[in-house]
Amino acid sequence: GDLSDLLEKFNYVGQSCKDIKERYGVKTDGLYYLQSKTGIIYETYCDMTTDGGGWTLVASVHENNLRGKCTVGDRWTSQQGNMDVVPEGDGNWVNKVTFGNAEGATGDDFKNPGYYDIQAQDMSVWHVPNQVLMENWKTSAIVRYHTNSKFFPLYGGNLYGLFQRFPLKYKGGLCKIDNGPSIPIVFDVGDAKYLREMYGPNTYAETEPGYVTFRVFNNEQAALAICSGVKVNACNSEHVCFGGGGFFPEASPRQCGDFAGWDWDGYGTHIGWSATKTITESTVLLFYR
Ligand code: G3P
Ligand code: CA
Ligand code: CA
Ligand code: CA
Question: What is the distance between the alpha carbons of residues 177 and 85, in angstroms, rounded to a whole number?
Fold first, then answer.
């Protein structure tokens, strides 16, 4: 845009995309500047249309190399190897470290101050093929869904608060008794069955479609952060959940990394416990409202 477009963008003041939508009546998806409570100015993508809009992109979980097991780029688990002496891994779910940039969110991990700063009610999740350009995220997403139950205030107001209450730590609890909440979801693109069947066929007997689930443990007490699209009713959750702590004991180090054990029966094969290539090569975008 020209200079007046830029100046107009700086005229919006808000802590979230919801603030900007409500104050200025903005209805255009794209990049906006937000200001955190502590005064940090940052730029992120706002979805100003889905279900009335006001959704702030706060993070993306990108698996740059599923064959790299807790190696470089596995910021949502551990970049330090599969190590029981680092049970919490890199700790990015519960710290105020930020990384990446909004426009690059499908090319690498992204986390901005909104992740811990915005007090949210609901969450939206998009699975967008890696490297897709921002202007095409919405139309290219294989799946988009959101919660509508205003669950976040019960769990600390955002993911930062939720994972303080449900720590992601190897041996921090047991499957299934210590698993965190499963929240019903509403689909904007795709449907519950389609998303559930993106994971390995062997997982179907262990999941129930139509939910987003937080902090589960697997059979070996490894902690996983988010199970997108499913409630998990059994304990091989490393094949349907992503992110987590820093140690995954089973067949070490094969389940350690941002997309855990999604390649257990081969990369992108959709055989046994392996997910499809489509979801394996898509980035998970996390929004708050
Ligand atoms: O998570 C699956 C694992 O626990 C069992 O794998 O290859 O023996 O079916 P497999
Ligand atoms: Ca990896
Ligand atoms: Ca990553
Ligand atoms: Ca297992």
Answer: 24
DSSP assignment of 42-53: EEEEEE-SGGG-
Tokens of 41: 């100015």
**pLDDT tens for residues 73-89?**
999 999 999 999 999 99
CB-CB contact of 178 with 172 (8 Å):
yes
User: What pLDDT digit, counting tens, does each position of 239-255 carry?
Assistant: 999 999 999 999 999 99
CA of 97 to the centre of ligand 3 (A): 14
CA angle 207–195–16, rounded 5-degree value: 105
| Ligand 1, pocket-test mutation among 219, 241, 250, 255, most atoms within 8 A of CB | 250
Q: Which atom of ligand 1 is nearest to the CA of 238?
A: 1
Q: pTM for the whole thing?
A: 0.97
ipTM over 0.85: yes
Which residues, judged by CB distance below 6 Å to any ligand atom, belong to the binding site of ligand 1? 236, 250, 264, 273
